[in-house]
Amino acid sequence: MTDLKRAGTRWTCWGILSLALLGCSSSPERPKPAALPQVSGPLTIQKAWSAQIGPVTTPLFASVHSAGVAVASTQGQVALIDAATGQDIWRLKLDSPIQAGVGGDGQRFAVITRHNEVVAIESGKVLWRYRLAAMSYTAPLVAGGRVFVLTADRAVTALDGATGQKLWVQQRTGDPLVLQQAGLLMPFGDTLLAGWGGRLAALNPNTGAVRWETLVGSSRGTNEVERLVDLVSGASRLGNVVCVRAFQSSVACVDALRGGTVWTRPAQGHEGLEGDDTLLFGVESDSKVQAWQRQNGDLAWSQDALRFRGLSAPLVFGNAVVMGDDNGWLHFFSRQDGQTLQRLSTDGSAITGRPVRAGQNLVVVTRTGGVFGFRPE
């Protein structure tokens, strides 16, 4: 069983189930990481700048906008950083630790505090706050003048972006266990896609009405923890097809117009997916990197040189697919065949979330709060 602590993955228990009963906070020791592979590719990338946001121990992700890269720390710092220079455009210190974020549309940004409050920010100032009925581990989605929130009780809430007024709530009942990890919440044209347990749902963003639901991952196993299944943050879209991962269950591609499954494959991973026009990339929980044919789900290549190194979700960056690891390394693989192209260091602490692309730069955030910008030569 893999150690999921690096990705902020623990089990949160709801209803009558208790942490003591299920032993939700325990996990076996992870096997020894593989030795670092030799770099054999021609890719040349250099560090362009670095900044500091503060320690990141909750599910926080950098988000990219035309204005810059929005980042946050667990202790309450939120900043919009110029991706070209690493300088602050604005920075704000909230009066509460942050549990999930950052979501934004370039004008307004939103995070969720440990007090279950959605905090909306504009130009570095708090715009409004809204108290949720349950905890959320998923960055708010800011789109179409609204803020959408997915909470751990599998409810989707829509708030007015300017005032914070609640517009609607849509909820599905599910298993009493949920992941303390970012779930799936994303736009698709005039539709809102959300993960409800092992199902992908399409909602009308104006009313919350369900347009369709489709099963992606099924529960299995002999106890509540083994049967846990949720769709995780990080989907890859090409045209009308969206490819997603169900926690430790499967990867699947779905026609997001109709809700029909294009293909599905078993997969034992807990990080989101990334892709290009022909391939879909993902990381298994033992840090094996896999590439599937986007059209039919057939395995294109597999790379196990970094097993047990705690790899992040992947990012397509030029001709490479890049992932961070538990020791602050960035690993670049060839998209075509998985060959190791380059390896770069940050500050020695785990890279949190998926690396992001901002213009020509690559930006990552580490567990100790380092924010690093890299630029190809």
Task: Write down how many β-strands occur, each being a DSSP E stretch of 2 or more residues.
Answer: 34
Beginning-to-end CA distance, first to last residue: 40 Å
Instruction: Choose one word for the global shape.
Output: globular
Low-confidence stretches: 1-26
Backbone CA Rg: 19 Å
Query: Given the helix and strand composition, which structural class is it?
Result: mainly beta
Output mean pLDDT: 89
Give the helix tally: 1
What is the spatial order of strands in the main beta sheet?
2-34-33-32
Proportion in β-strands? over 45%
Helix content: under 10%
Q: State the major sheet.
A: 4 strands, antiparallel
Description:
- This protein is an all-beta fold.
- It is built from one helix and 34 strands.
- The strands form nine sheets. It has a four-stranded antiparallel β-sheet, with no helix packed on it. The protein has a four-stranded antiparallel β-sheet with strand order 3-4-5-6, with no helix packed on it.
- The longest helix has 4 residues, at about 20.
- It is globular and about 55 Å long.
- Residues about 1-25 have low confidence and may be disordered.
List keywords for this structure.
377 residues; mainly beta; four-stranded antiparallel β-sheet; 47% strand
Topology (elements, then pairings):
Blueprint: E1 11-13, H1 19-22, E2 45-52, E3 63-64, E4 69-72, E5 77-81, E6 88-93, E7 98-104, E8 108-113, E9 117-122, E10 125-131, E11 141-143, E12 146-150, E13 155-160, E14 166-171, E15 177-179, E16 185-188, E17 191-196, E18 199-203, E19 210-215, E20 236-238, E21 241-246, E22 250-255, E23 260-266, E24 274-275, E25 279-283, E26 289-293, E27 299-303, E28 315-317, E29 320-324, E30 329-334, E31 340-345, E32 351-358, E33 361-366, E34 370-376
Antiparallel strand pairs: 1-15, 2-34, 3-4, 4-5, 5-6, 7-8, 8-9, 9-10, 11-12, 12-13, 13-14, 16-17, 17-18, 18-19, 20-21, 21-22, 22-23, 24-25, 25-26, 26-27, 28-29, 29-30, 30-31, 32-33, 33-34
